[in-house]
């Protein structure tokens, strides 16, 4: 497939309810979508960066510039046989994994369409449905949190993750455990603690948590290893893991016992596959993280979650938890068992509702490859 045009656009989507983490509150999302065309077919990808550099170093605006000035020129006009060739084209660009992933993943969608198979099948995924959990932001009161958890459990979700930060951690967790003694429960700190908090974090050992996600530095392995040797609750790394090398280091150093894979954070499906395989060989369970994605990013997450190493429920949940109206048809729905059925039609398996995407678009730029010169 020859990469004929690449478009990048920014859409605005308001979350139904603001999402609070230890690094800030997300509400009005500014999301970049990438559309790659080859032979008249379109593949879609999403930049999962948030608005400010507070989860990782990328932002919506840095991704726009890096895509426009560096990533798109390196990919445009190339003749590819497989999306797995994209990382080599982009190897000179350091970091900016979320910007890279949007282009690579769009090409995965294209390739699956050209082969007439679902993206999940192209990736090597076998599951027909994936297990879903929810990520609940920091709540204003513990009562409100208990009500949210009740609602999500009633909807069928298989595990509950809550965001925590210093001063808003032990009380909500202990209250949830009293109300819901048997649920799968975990916490995500988004790097809000330091190693000197280890005695405080050890109190979670009595709460039967599945894991504590990214308690320490966003780019740390060493201190997480020290913390893991001092607490019984498994540590899960999120922010720290950008690639397979990081994964090998984290496992060798015993920095964590569980990994969350986010497609954007690791630069796309090709690297995600390698991480999944490595973790499977080392008996490290993985699950799919979320970045409050629109339907396009969500569809990619569903496809990735069908790989065999994804043995724990992920942060992939129904469109209606986030948006009044998503940008794909059908929207992502969750069964009473807390699962999502994996689509069986070619590519992403969801139709991008172009009219709605156009109406939400704030800016757009399209880049076209030079016409190929016919050889006589
Ligand atoms: O750390 O997992 C995280 C959202 C934005 C930034 C970071 C994180 C999250 C979530 C949301 O937890 C998961 C979801 O998409 O529902
Ligand atoms: Mg996280």
Describe the structure.
The protein has 376 residues and is an alpha/beta fold. The chain is 31% helix and 22% strand. The chain has helices at residues 60-75, 86-89, 97-115, 119-123, 142-154, 170-179, 198-202, 222-228, 244-252, 269-281, 295-304, 354-360, and strands spanning 5-21, 24-38, 41-47, 129-131, 133-136, 159-163, 184-188, 212-213, 235-237, 258-261, 286-288, 328-329, 339-341, 351-352, 361-368. The strands form 4 sheets. A 7-stranded parallel sheet has the order 5-6-7-8-9-10-11. A 4-stranded antiparallel sheet has the order 3-2-1-15, with helices on both faces. 2-succinylbenzoate binds at residues 50, 55, 135, 188, 190, 238, 289-292, 315.
Give me some keywords for this one.
31% helix, 7-stranded parallel β-sheet, binds 2-succinylbenzoate, single chain, 376 residues, binds magnesium ion, alpha/beta, globular, 12 helices
Give me the secondary-structure topology:
Layout: E1 5-21, E2 24-38, E3 41-47, H1 60-75, H2 86-89, H3 97-115, H4 119-123, E4 129-131, E5 133-136, H5 142-154, E6 159-163, H6 170-179, E7 184-188, H7 198-202, E8 212-213, H8 222-228, E9 235-237, H9 244-252, E10 258-261, H10 269-281, E11 286-288, H11 295-304, E12 328-329, E13 339-341, E14 351-352, H12 354-360, E15 361-368
Parallel strand pairs: 5-6, 6-7, 7-8, 8-9, 9-10, 10-11
Antiparallel strand pairs: 1-2, 1-15, 2-3, 4-13, 12-14
Bound molecules: 2-succinylbenzoate and magnesium ion.
Magnesium ion is lined by residues 188, 190, 213-214, 238, 289.
